[in-house]
């Protein structure tokens, strides 16, 4: 066994097995001093380092009594199931409207059309930003807040809004 080829951690473990007093990782200033100390202890105790420090061979793991069942993908598992309520798709579609509805209005439109939706102006703004990052040319939003508009501007802004009848409920 060549001590010079062993990693320092294994050398330290070997030293602690043969020495009377164990050493820590900072006990020896250099690797060479650790190797010299191991050789000195081995000579003092008449220890054959060639056979003493051989790494133990790992035991072969026992074979399982029952082999694992083979994993096969079922056709149902490969099909993509629809996720969510479709809020993102609807918000993106409304954002592409050239009228440029404000984000809060888009969120209200989405919430009115999809039961259980909780879209906010902030989430709609995220969809618009995500589309821009992906290179989609999103029309600019209206600059005026509905509260700041006069009657003509308000009528013009609302002329493009489409009223959707609610879906008939089951109950």
Describe the structure.
It is built from eight helices and no strands. The chain is mainly α and 171 residues long. The longest helix has 14 residues, at 31-44.
Label this structure with key terms:
mainly alpha; 8 helices; 43% helix; 171 residues
Give a brief outline of the structure.
The chain is 43% helix and 0% strand. The protein is built from eight helices and no strands.
Structural class: mainly alpha
DSSP helix count? Answer: 8
Strand content: under 5%
The residue ranges in which pLDDT falls below 50 over 5 or more consecutive positions are none
Q: Could you tell me the radius of gyration in angstroms?
A: 37 Å
* Fraction of residues in helix: 40-55%
Spell out the blueprint of helices and strands.
Layout: H1 8-18, H2 31-44, H3 49-52, H4 75-78, H5 87-95, H6 103-113, H7 121-133, H8 151-158
